[in-house]
Amino acid sequence: MSSQVNIQGLRIGGGAPVRIESMLKAPLTNLEGCISQCERLLAAGCEMARVALPDAGLGQNLNKLIQGTALRLMADIHFDPDIAIAAMINGCKSVRINPGNMSTYKLAEMIKAAKDYDVVIRIGANGGSLGNFHMQKANGDRALALFYAVEEQAEILINNNFSENIILSAKSSNVPETIRANSLISKKYNYPMHIGITEAGFGTEGIVKGAVGIGNMLSQGIGDTLRVSLTDEPEEEVRAGYAILNALGLREHGVNIISCPTCGRRRLDVKELLKVIEPLINEIPEGAIKNFAVMGCEVNGPREAKHADFGIAGTPNGVVVFKKGEIIGTFSIEELPEIVRKQCEVRS
C-alpha cells in the first residue's frame, strides 16, 4: 500500500479508492468555458482535473476558476518553475511538473513554495519529452528512460526535504512501455501513482489502449488515480475510467449495462432499444440499480441475466421484464419507458 496525499479533502493512495481524473480542454483564457467543463465533469463523477497553465500571467484566471468550481484542480506546468509558484500563490493545491522539460532554474524556490502553501507535486514524465541524457543512460530502453526521468526528479524533491506530498507518474502512448515503466517505479517508491496511456487516440482504439494499459497496471496493484486520455469530451474520459474500475470490481459507479451481442434468436433490436432507454438509465439514482440487462431473447433473458438487478428481454410479442431473476410481467415496447421509470426510481 502506498503512502497517502490529501488534496482539499480528496485522499489519494494509502488505501483510498482509485480516483478518476480528466483534464480541461478549454484554455484558461476562456474562463466561462473552463467553469462549464468543470461542472460537466463533476456531474459525470470526476474527482480532479488538470488545467493547463502556460503563463504565470493567467494565475488570476486560475484563482477565479478555483473559486468558481467545487472540482479539485491541478495546474499543469511545463518549463518554468515560476509558473508553478504562480499557481500556488493563486490557491492551487496541486501542480504537475514534467521532469523532461522542467528548467532547474528556481527549482529550489518552487519546492520551498510547495512546502509553504502545502501543495502536492505530481512528477509527470512523458514518453514524448524524454531527454537525451535519460535515453543514453537507459541504452535506448524507453521504459527504463521514463523510470530514470521520474527517479531524477523525485530525488531532487527528496533531497530538498520535500518527501511527503508527492505523486509519481510515467506515461507513453506505447502500452507495454508504460506498463513496464510504472512497474519499475512502483518497486522503488511508495508514493501514490497516477496512471494512464497518453495520446491514446479517439473512439474505440483510444478506449481500448487506455483500458488495456490501465487495467493491466491496476491488476498488478499499481495506480491510485487515473486518466483515460481521449481525443473527446472530458466527461467521456471519466465514463471510460469508471467503466474500467467497474469491470475490475474496484469501484461501483453509475449503472452497469449488460447487453447481449445478439444473434439469429433475437426477438428485438437490442441496439435500437438501448438508444431509446439509455437516457432513462442515466437518470437512475446512484445505488438504486447496479446491473441493468437488455437481452435479445428468452434464452439470454431471465436465465443468463438473472443476476441483474433489472432486466428486459425480447419475446415474440414484446418484452419480458424481470427484477433480480423474478419476472414482473410482459409488456409492449411502447410501455417500457414508464416501466423503467417506475421500477428503477427514475426521477420524473
SSE topology sketch:
Elements: E1 4-7, E2 10-13, E3 19-23, H1 31-44, E4 48-52, H2 59-68, E5 72-77, H3 81-89, E6 94-97, H4 107-116, E7 120-126, H5 132-137, H6 142-159, E8 166-171, H7 175-188, E9 194-195, H8 203-219, E10 225-226, H9 234-248, E11 256-259, H10 270-281, E12 291-295, H11 299-303, E13 310-315, E14 318-323, E15 326-331, H12 336-343
Parallel strand pairs: 3-4, 3-10, 4-5, 5-6, 6-7, 7-8, 9-10, 11-12, 12-13
Antiparallel strand pairs: 1-2, 13-14, 14-15
Helix pairs in contact: 1-9, 3-4, 6-7, 7-8, 8-9, 10-12
Describe the protein's architecture and organization.
This protein starts with a strand and ends in a 5-residue tail after the last helix. The chain is 40% helix and 21% strand. The radius of gyration is 23 Å and the shape is elongated. It has an eight-stranded parallel β-sheet. Helix 7 (175-188) runs parallel beside helix 8 (203-219). The chain has two domains: 4-248, TIM Barrel; 256-343, Sulfite Reductase Hemoprotein, domain 1, CATH 3.30.413.10. It has twelve helices and 15 strands.
